[in-house]
């Protein structure tokens, strides 16, 4: 693997996940900030150190490249990586616009590379296992994805370069898609500029071709940060938080059928192991070995971006 970017997100989640995965080696890092470059390379034992990502790719010839950076810097870099035949893994959101994401998917198909986007909530053990358990009783008929933050008095993301729903709350949008399955049929939404000059509240009711109904509750004007899900199938429900844990309830009983503790499920106290980053990195490595597109590939990510657009367009 070769890495582009050595900021906080990359070094707290992706670098340690790759370090822990058997048969995976980080051979080089490209980073404009020399201090961050050397700090990451020293910490994770990486020899190759570059200021230019093209030079790194041409010299190191990695199997795959991770490009972890702000979304408005990503498009040209992503295209240049795929044009050189490297598999590519990126952070969310995959791009600034849905059309950029679609064009990245076109480029990936043209150059026959595998791609992935860090929608790690899909791979959070609490959410993934909760969905699996519920589906043993039947298909999911309704699901809720909630993402709350306390950003009262704060400005927009990247000084206004990105909106909240596309840049961050997209995690909940993608999780809702994952839980409900199928394609989007219709959307009704309420998007508000509450206490700010940018949109801070995004609420939606989404009907899917699977027959499931999804509820999206994202609000940056609340009392604290919470990411949680509800998963409902016939006679069974999961109420879960990928970080704080969850419970499975069934058959009208007050006591939970099963508790879901992310730390116990992963036998680790490390957040990157327990909350989903390790799982999605592991999935990407397995897909490279097997030569199959990852679950969160660019074509699939374009569907999540399209749903973001439809939430803005579906105002009631």
UniProtKB/TrEMBL annotation:
Residues 2-118 form the Gfo/Idh/MocA-like oxidoreductase N-terminal domain. It comes from Handelsmanbacteria sp. (strain RIFCSPLOWO2_12_FULL_64_10). Residues 169-232 form the GFO/IDH/MocA-like oxidoreductase domain. GO terms for molecular function: nucleotide binding; oxidoreductase activity. This is Uncharacterized protein. Keywords: Oxidoreductase.
């Amino acid at each position: 693997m070769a890495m582009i970017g050595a900021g906080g997100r990359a070094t707290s989640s992706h670098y340690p996940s790759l370090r822990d995965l058997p048969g995976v080696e980080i051979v080089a890092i490209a980073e404009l900030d020399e201090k961050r470059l050397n700090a990451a390379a020293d910490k994770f034992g990486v020899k190759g150190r570059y200021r230019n990502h093209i030079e790194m790719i041409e010299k190191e010839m990695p199997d795959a490249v991770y490009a972890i950076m702000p979304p408005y810097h990503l498009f040209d870099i992503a295209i240049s990586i795929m044009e050189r035949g490297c598999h590519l893994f990126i952070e969310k959101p995959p791009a600034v616009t849905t059309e950029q994401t679609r064009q990245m998917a076109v480029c990936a198909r043209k150059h026959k590379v595998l791609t992935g986007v860090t929608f790690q909530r899909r791979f959070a053990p609490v959410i993934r296992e909760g969905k699996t358990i519920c589906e043993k009783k039947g298909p999911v008929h309704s699901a809720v994805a909630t993402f709350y933050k306390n950003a009262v008095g704060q400005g927009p993301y990247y000084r206004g370069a990105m909106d909240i729903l596309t840049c961050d709350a997209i995690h909940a949008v993608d999780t809702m898609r994952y839980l409900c399955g199928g394609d989007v049929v219709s959307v009704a939404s309420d998007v508000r500029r509450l206490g700010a000059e940018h949109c801070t509240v995004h609420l939606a009711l989404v009907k899917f071709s699977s027959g499931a109904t999804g509820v999206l509750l994202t609000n940056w004007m609340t009392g604290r940060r919470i990411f949680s899900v509800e998963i409902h199938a016939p006679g069974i429900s999961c109420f879960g938080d990928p970080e704080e844990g969850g419970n499975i309830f069934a058959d009208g009983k007050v006591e939970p059928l099963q508790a879901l503790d992310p730390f116990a499920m992963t036998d680790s106290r490390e957040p990157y192991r327990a909350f989903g980053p390790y799982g999605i990195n592991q999935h990407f490595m397995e897909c490279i070995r097997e030569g199959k597109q990852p679950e969160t590939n660019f074509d699939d990510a374009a569907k999540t971006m399209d749903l973001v657009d439809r939430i803005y367009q579906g105002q009631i």
